[in-house]
């Protein structure tokens, strides 16, 4: 969806540029670059979290991080922001803490925790 919005904003930039509206062109251009950067971020870092028999692979802006099942601690955390409860999945290993929300996971964090817990149980058995 972000790529579609980026293309629509690009069309708006071109339309405003040919119309001679410099201020509108600059503002729409900034919006286009911002949404485009978010779209690129979402494309390059998918999937954010993957799991297998060996453990967890988490992709972040800083690179990929691997954690074995024995070193990874998983938990759900609920926070209240702007009057809404937000549920996140936390993966902790040593000094590293990775926090994944619903958008990062593409699923409800409770469901992802259930799957990860089952995989961890099978791997450690």
UniProtKB/TrEMBL annotation:
Alphabetical list of InterPro entries matching this protein: CFP-6_PH (IPR019692)
Name this polypeptide is given: Low molecular weight protein antigen 6 PH domain-containing protein
Domain Low molecular weight protein antigen 6 PH, residue spans: 46-120
Protein origin, superkingdom: Bacteria
